[in-house]
Amino acid sequence: MDVPPQVLFVCVHNAGRSQMAAAFLTHLAGDRVRVRSAGSAPADEVNPAVVEAMAEIGIDISAEIPKVLTIDAVQASDVVITMGCGDACPIFPGKRYEDWVLDDPAGQGVEAVRPIRDAIETRVRALIADLTATSTDEART
């Protein structure tokens, strides 16, 4: 059986952007992808406006807890997507890295979080299409 690709989403506090991205990827890809999220300086809780914005579209992340970024998490991942963590994310050869430039929802109300949420969903859908195409291409060779 094929091992699903592993994706790690990283932002500073692991309380907004990376939580939304991980939730979308889990929701949309199911068991076709393994998903992690972490932060270089994790917050105490997920941003309540982010939880509300995700609940509006039927994705419950209220039980999520910000997690600290570890070298092990990066090493175990095939794709590492950073969202404003700067140089805090360790770089290892053979990993695919992307940096998604997105507004930070910290301190914002749900009205400001919605467009960030929607931009993340668009990027996650494109990532799924790319990972699925890559897996299919590799299976053919």
Describe the structure.
This protein has a four-stranded parallel beta sheet with strand order 2-1-3-4, covered by helices on one side. It is built from four helices and four strands; from the N terminus they run βαβααββα. The protein has helices spanning 17-29, 48-56, 71-75, 110-140; strands at 6-11, 34-39, 79-82, 96-99. Helix 1 packs across helix 4 (110-140) and helix 2 crosses helix 4. The protein is an alpha/beta fold. Strand 1, helix 1 and strand 2 (34-39) form a beta-alpha-beta unit. The model has no long low-confidence stretch (mean pLDDT 90).
What descriptors fit this protein?
alpha/beta; 141 residues; 4-stranded parallel beta sheet
Layout: helices, strands, pairs:
Layout: E1 6-11, H1 17-29, E2 34-39, H2 48-56, H3 71-75, E3 79-82, E4 96-99, H4 110-140
Parallel strand pairs: 1-2, 1-3, 3-4
Short description:
The protein is α/β, with parallel strands linked by helices and 141 residues long. Helix content is 41%, strand content 14%.
Helicity, as a percent range: 40-55%
- Strands ordered across the widest β-sheet: 2-1-3-4
Total helix count? Answer: 4
Compute the average pLDDT. 90
Query: From the alpha-carbon coordinates, what is the Rg to the nearest angstrom?
Result: 15 Å
Number of β-strand runs: 4
Unreliable runs: none
Largest sheet: 4 strands, parallel
